[in-house]
Amino acid sequence: MNDRTRLIHSGQDRDPHTGASSIPIYQVSTYHQQDPEHLGPYDYGRSDNPTREALEQTLAQLEGGARGLAFASGMAATSSALLLFQPGDHLVVGRDIYGGTYRILTTVFHRWKLDVTFVDTAAPDLVRRAIRPETRGLFVETPANPLLQITDLRAMAAIAREHSLVAIADNTFMTPYLQRPLELGFDIVVHSATKFLGGHSDLIAGAAVVREDALGRRLRSIQNSFGAILGPQDSWLVLRGIKTLAVRIDAQQRTADQIARWLLTRPEIRRVYYPGLDQHPGRDVHARQASGAGAVLSFELADGPAAVAFLKRAKLPLVAVSLGGVESILSYPAAMSHAAMPESERLARGITDGLVRLSVGLEDAEDLIIDLRSALEGKTAN
Amino acid sequence: MSIELTTLLAQAGNRRDPATGSISVPIYQTASFGHPALGQSTGFDYSRSSNPTRLALEETLAAADGGHRGFAFASGLAAIDCVMRLFKSGDRIVVTEDLYGGTFRLFEKTLRPFGVEAIYVDTSRLSAVRLAIADPRVAGIFVESPTNPLVRVADIRAIAVLARARDLLMIVDNTFLTPVLQRPLAQGADLVVYSATKYLAGHNDVVAGAVVTRTRELSERIAFFQNAVGAVLGPQDSWLTLRGLKTLPLRIARQQENAGRIAERLAVHPRVRRVYYPGLPDHPGRDLLTREGSGPGGMIAFEVDDPARVPGILAGVKVFLFAESLGGVESLITYPAVQTHADMDPATRERLGINDRLLRLSVGIEDFGDLIRDLGAVL
Question: How many domains does the structure of chain A reveal?
């Protein structure tokens, strides 16, 4: 079955009892047992819920894994995956991973003696050099946020295999529609399903998909015992979002490409970061491991005041954190996602005061360009 | 700034909550609203009259159709029922003859006993409409175009000219094409009605209806009936319908593309006798839709060679779901004679062509190859 069809018909797309074309929202905590000595497949809503299960099966099929698991947020998914490790273990983690992942590693898991080395995973040699005898895991994100740096997933999987590491990829920016790390040798994929999977900026959710069943059962046991599960209403909404994932990403990616190329022609813009551009570092690697460049791009204006003025004048995109929704969102990394990072470190990574990130939505491309042009030229579109 | 429909819909409901900046409009699951003081109102008093979530949907519907106001109802039939309250006992209404069976039932079983009489004509023939409205008791025209299930196309612009000359109220059921493909108010109609269950919500998971008005005077009358009769859409379903509208242009584009390719294949299939699809070269409504900048949409009807084959087809489809309704992301196959049009008398059904060989497809956004293989296997 083709991806476009699987998005709509994988998992449980019809209710066996009534034939309902939409999976029921099982808003329930517990299940009546026919036989008190032999419990049925469902006993408690934290352990199993048919609505969540429909989403989890869909996620597993889309990523090509043995087991999918839905969590209360992207961070709940990542935290649960990190609970697979134990005190004394060492992890090699991408330097440019999501700030929330950085925070939980350096605060919460640090206290539990999980040791971490952050490296630039765009350079496989640096990854190899960071590995120690007690290294047990490798965690990468590609393209990374907000500069869309590319990590070679096949090279990372090979290193992980060589050193028996659990390889985890955050696939939030690409989704399985564009990139499937499990098929390239990764063990676990995590998502903030809040973003493209849910797709409408109207829910908070996370997901993990595990390639092999043995590891999948371990993560499933953590999901049940740790309990950061996704509720039935949100599970249902994510499933509903996934049905239009292909049409949304196709349209968003087309517009993102058009905007990225247009930004290159603008004198106000110093640099454009988008994996679809020829000059983007790692573009060839990205093209080998993903079927598209996605819908998130970043660009740099002259300085902080220019960026802030631009953000205030732009009328069509919303100014907010988050990404991946049907509406375009402009973010300001210096004050939002990377505000907690020391300024010297932030600047060294290229996240300057002039940097702006754009998550491209479903609006008409011309409408967006007209608005961005006016904002760049110091006018407000009317 | 004048913006494209795509842009309007992508951001539908945004920027409505200054207190928090919430991108998604809140679901106001409330019956009542507190008043600041005696004689004052926040603009919301009681959710039957108005609800902020429903209002976000209603304003989006109005903008999408270029109308004065939008109204959301508990179902498509509730929306039509509300519009029919604009008429009075003794009025006659010229109605498209091969229309949705539920609308037919509403006219025959509910409105006729109250003295509102439907006169059924083939509204794809302008001369038939002209003849029917010569009757001085005719007070309105209700057009469904394209029709369900035979996708006949009416010349809405020409009928609106006739209606205007006779001062008739003209209503168009735009469920099949939606404002993305057809804008009846711009073509001269007074009111547009929808089963929002179909393409507008688009995921086969909501039952909802809508009305959009052209003038302030009609808005006031519909608002009165919506509140007085009370068949309003609840906040949860209003929110889901609004969420569906955000992807409407993408869904329709893919559905229409898939439908066009499926219709072409069916047209040359040895076991198919006839295909009804307004995108096919031999369809009489094709030029009209092209001229109006419209499109053929995602609905196809076709006749198989042998009615004995129908049960096997319906039981054998794997990607298509055998179910009533239409317009969702998933493809559905329907048997109109026993499902959607069971309430129409058999003689009328046969005369119209809704026979025991006729099947209807609502084409979804799945991969074309998967859909055509599924149909090929059962045919």
Answer: 2
